Automatic annotation (TrEMBL):
Residue stretches making up the P-type ATPase C-terminal domain: 886-1136
Organism of provenance: Linum trigynum
BP GO annotations: phospholipid translocation; protein localization involved in auxin polar transport
Phylogenetic placement of the source organism: Eukaryota, Viridiplantae, Streptophyta, Embryophyta, Tracheophyta
Identification of the protein by name: Phospholipid-transporting ATPase
Active site: D427 (4-aspartylphosphate intermediate)
Amino acid sequence: MGGGRKRIRLKLSRLYSFRCGKASFEDDHSQIGGPGFSRVVFANEPDCFEAGIRHYDDNYVSTTKYNIATFLPKSLFEQFRRVANFYFLVTGILSFTRLAPYTAVSAIIPLVIVIAATMVKEGIEDWHRKQQDIEVNNRMVKVHQGDGVFKQTEWKNLRVGDIVKVVKDEFFPADLLLLSSSYEDGICYVETMNLDGETNLKLKQGVETTSILHEESEFTNFKSMIRCEDPNANLYTFVGTLEYEENQFPLTPQQLLLRDSKLRNTDFIYGAVVFTGHDTKVMQNATPPPSKRSNVEKKMDQVIYLCFGIVFVMASVGSICFGIWTRDDLEDGRMKRWYLKPNDSEIFFDPRNAVAAALLHFLTAIMLYSYFIPISLYVSIEVVKVLQSIFINKDIHMYYEETDKPAHARTSNLNEELGQVDTILSDKTGTLTCNSMEFIKFSVAGTAYGHGVTEVERAMERKTGSPLRINGLEGRKDSSSKSPVKGFNFEDERIMDGHWLYEPRADVIQKFLRLLAVCHTAIPEIDEDTGNVSYEAESPDEAAFVIAARELGFEFYKRTQTTISVRELDLQSGKKVEKEYNLLNVLEFNSTRKRMSVIVRDDAGKLLLLSKGADSVMFERLAKSGRQFEGETRTHVNQYADAGLRTLILAYRELDEAEYSNFNSKFNVAKSSVSADRETLIEKVAADMEKDLILLGATAVEDKLQNGVPDCIDKLAQAGIKIWVLTGDKMETAINIGFACSLLRQGMKQIIINLELPELQALEIAGDKAAINKVSKAHVLREITEGKALVSGGSADAFALIIDGKSLTYALEDDVKNLFLDLAVSCASVICCRSSPKQKALVTRLVKNGTGRTTLAIGDGANDVGMLQEAHIGVGISGVEGMQAVMSSDVAIAQFRYLERLLLVHGHWCYRRISSMICYFFYKNVTFGISLFLYEAYTSFSGQPAYNDWFLSLYNVFFTSLPVIALGVFDQDVSSRDAIKFPLLYQEGVQNVLFSWRRILTWMINGVYSAIMIFFFCTKAMDIQAFNDDGMTAGRDIFGATMYTCIVWTVNLQMVLSINYFTVLQHILIWGSIAFWYIFLMIYGAMSPGFANNAYKIFVEALAPAASYWLITLFTVITTLIPYFSYSTIQMRFFPMYHQMIQWIRHEGQSEDPEFCDMVRQRSLRPQTVGFTARVAARSSRWEGSLGADILSDRRST
C-alpha cells in the first residue's frame, strides 16, 4: 500500500447481504447510449482526443451571484427592478431636459450614492461567497500523473477521466466511480452528512474486477471506458457500464462516490472522475433557496405605491390648475402674470397653448414631487438589517459553548418577521430532543432493570402532582444528569460491576448482553495511545447498544471479514474471556422489516440466529416455547413507551446445519436474482428464517429533551404563539414527548385521528387499494367533522389534535384540507406523527396559506429542508444530523431553547425598530414633499421649487437619514430582561400593531400637519415685512432656507420624541445632523455664486444676523411638535399600550413587585392553553373548583 502503511484486507461484503451483491444488467442498462445516457468517460486518459472533443465541464465550482463581467449589468438590473429606484432613474434622465426644476447633477448624485451603496453591499456579500469557493476549489487531492505516480493537485484542476486517490477523512472532490479501496473486496464507508444530513455511514463497493488495484503503481497501464447517464440531480440513482479488458460490467449507485461526502473507516480509495464541477449531483441539487420577503417589506411596497399615487394626484391637480390659470392669463391682450415673461417662453407659459403647457408642467411636477418618495429608504433598511443581524450573531446568550456554535442569521431580509410569528412548526428528533441516544433501561427474563428517571416521567410526576414510585424504588437517578460515558446512562446495582452474575436468571442476561455485543454492523476503532475502543455505527441507537454491552461486561473490540471478537464475562469464573464468533450472514434493518438479524457460529460450533426489532413484528415471530416472559416484557415495554423511551425486542434461536444450509443456498439465489422483485425475494427468505424465536427481553434508550425545551415552550405559549410538532416517530412516543415538554397536559382532551381499523386491516389483506382509499378517506373526514363539532361545542376545555401520517395523507387532500385546518387551529396543540418530509412541507404550506399568518419552521435534519423552505422563516438547528437543514435555513441556532430569545427579544426589537423606522421615513418625506406642494400652490404652480437644488438633493442623504438608521439599530422599548419577563408583549408584532395602516396613515397625516404648520407660519411671519434691521424683505432664497431650517429641526426633534432608548451615538447623530445643516450652509454659501446660486453667503449675511430667523425657527418648531407631544403624553398616562405599561412599571420601580407584574401579565389577549403555566393554572382551577364544591356542600349540610 502507498505510504508504507499496513493494508487492511477484509472481505466485508458478507456483512451487507442486501445492499452488497454482484450488480447485474437490468432494464435501465439497456438505455446506455440513448438520450439522457450519452456520457462517455475515458478513465486514466483525460487528455485523449475523444475526451477533448466532448468539452466536459472542469471541476471549478462557483456559487457566486456575479462575476467581473456581469457584476455591473446584473447588479444595476437588480437595483432598478425596484419601482422606486426606477422612478428616480426616470426623473434623473428628465432632469437633463429644460423641464427640470433643478439641475441634473443635484438629481443624479443622490441616486448614484444610494445605488452605489447597495451595489457595494451586494459586492461584499458576493465576495464572501467567492472566498468560500476559493477555499473549496483549492483543496488538494492526489491525482495520477502517469507511470503510476500520484501527485497533489487542486480540486479545480481535476478533469473527467482522472484517477484520484482519496484517503481517510477526506472529502471526495468530484463524483467518482469507486475502483478499489484498502479493503480487499473494494468496500468503503462513506459519510453523506453534507448531502442528506444523515450521520450514519453508507457502504459502497467497487466493481469486482478493479477491486484488486491496491497499489499506485498498478495504475500505470490501467485504461477503461465508462458509459453512463448524463448529469442529473437524482442522488440515489446511477446507471452505467464499465468496459475493462474487453468485458462489460454494470454500474449502480453502489459504485458512485458523490462530491462533498467523506471517506470514513477506510484508509484510502481509488476512483475515476465521472462528473466534475457543476455536473456533479450535489451541484445539480444546489437550487437557489426560495426568495422570501417579510410582510412588513411587502406592506412597505404598498405604502410606496400609495405615495406614487399621491404624487400623481398632486401633479395632476397642480397641472390642471396651472393650465387653467395659464389659459386665463391673457386678458384684453395683456398678461396678468407679466413677471413670468410668457412672451419669452416658447410653450411653458404660453396662454395660447395652455393644454401643452399643462402637460409639460405635469412632467415638471412629477420630478419636483419625487422628494415625496424616500430615495434612501431601501438602502437604509438594508444597512439596518445587516447591523441587526450582526447583533443577533454576536448575542452571547445564544452561544452554545459545548459545540462552539453561535446564532447565525444567514439572511437579514427576515429580521422583523421574527417578531410576528404566529405558529411554530417543529421537528421532534434532534430539535426538541438531543438525537443523542442513551441506554437507560432494559428488561430481561421478565425483570426490569434501570433506575433512571426520564424527562417524560418527571413531566408525568408534575402532571399528577405525586412523587414517582416505580418498581418500589424512589430517589432514582435523573436521566438528565451528565453521564461519564456518552450513550450510556444506566444505573442499577443489581447489574453494574458484574453483579448481574448473581441474578436468578444470569444465564438469560448473559445471552441478552451477548446479543447486544454481536448483533450489529458497527465498526470498532481502537485508540493507539489509550487502548480505548470507540464505535462507528449506522445509527445512534446501535452505538448505544454496543456501548451498553461494553459497559456491562461484553466488549466488542474487533471485526474481520468473517468474525466478531468480544471480551465477555464468563458466567462460571466471573472473569473476562475472549470469544470469537464466525459471522455468516447479516439480515439488515429497514423500515419494512423493522428488525435486523445476524447468523453466527460460536466457539462451541453452535449456529445462532440473533435478532432485534420492533415489538410490532417481533412478538409475532416468537415460538410457543419462547414466550415465557412475554407478559412481563410487554408490560415493561409499555411502561418504557409511556416514559418516552425507544424500545426494541431481543430474541434468538439455535439453528441446525441442514436448516442453515438450506437457507444459505436460497439466500444466495435470491441475492443473485436479476428480476425486478429481487428485494422481495431476499426479504421472503430472511423472514422464513426469522421465526420460532426465543424471547430474551427488551431494551429502552432515551432520546432526551434538549435543555430548556419545556421552559422555552412555556414562554412561547405565554407569548400567544401556537406550536405544532411534525415528527416521523410513532404516536405513543410523540404523545409522551408532548407531555414532557408541556404541549399536552392532564385534562386536555385529545382528538386522535388514525387508521387503526379492523375493517381496513381486512381490506389490506384482500389487497383492494381502491376500497382502502375510500374507507380511509371517509373515516378521516368523519373524525375531523366530529372533532370540529367537539371543539366548537362551547366547552371551556383545551383540545389537542394528534394525527398519524396515513390519516394526514387524506387530511391534506384538496377537498379535506380546509376542514382539517379549521380543526387544527381551534386546538391548543397539534402533533402530526409518522410524517414524511413531503407531508411536513405540505402541512407548513397549508398553515401558511390557510391562516395568512407568519409561520416559523424549525428542524435539524435533511428531512426538514422542505418544511424550512416552505415556511415564512426557516430555523435550522446546528445539531448532529449534518448541515443540510442549516444550509437551507434563514437563521441557525444551536439549541431549541434559544428560540425564546430569538423571537421574544430580537424578533420584537427588530419588528419594532423596522416598523418605527419606516413610519418615520414616510413622515419626514411627507413633511418635505407637502411643503414643496404648498409652495407650488402659493406660486400659482409655476414649477419653481421652494429650496435650492442641493437642499433638495441632500435632505434624504445627509440631514435626516443617519438618525433614523440609529433608531433602527439601537432603539428598545423594553429591555431584553423585560421582553422575556412579559412575553405577551410579543403579540404587538403578531397583531401588527406597530405597522398597521392606521399607524402608517397617522404618521403620514402628522407629516401633512407638520408641513402645513411650517409653511404657513413661515409664510405669515415673513409676508410683507422687514426681515432684518436693514429693512430688507425676505425673498425666495431667505424664505426657502428658513422653511428648510424649520423642517430639519422638526423632523429631527420628532425623532427625539419617538425614541424610547437613547444612546450616545443617537445623540451624536441627531444633534450632529442639525449642526451639519448649519455647517453645510456656511460652506456651501462660501462657494462661488455660480455654484452656490441663491444660497451664496445666505447664512452668514442674511440668516444668522437676523433675530427673526431664530425666533421663527424656535416658534415654528415648538408649535409644530406640541400636538404630537400632547397626544403621546395623554396616551402614555391614560391609554398605555402594553409596552408602555411595562415602561411605567420600570419607571415606578415596581418591576420586582410580583403582584404588580402579575396584574400586567394578566392583561392577556388570549388564555394560555399549553406550557407549564397553563398546567399550573389548570391544576389551580381544579383545586379551586374542588374547594368551592366542598364549601357549598358544607353550607348545604349546615
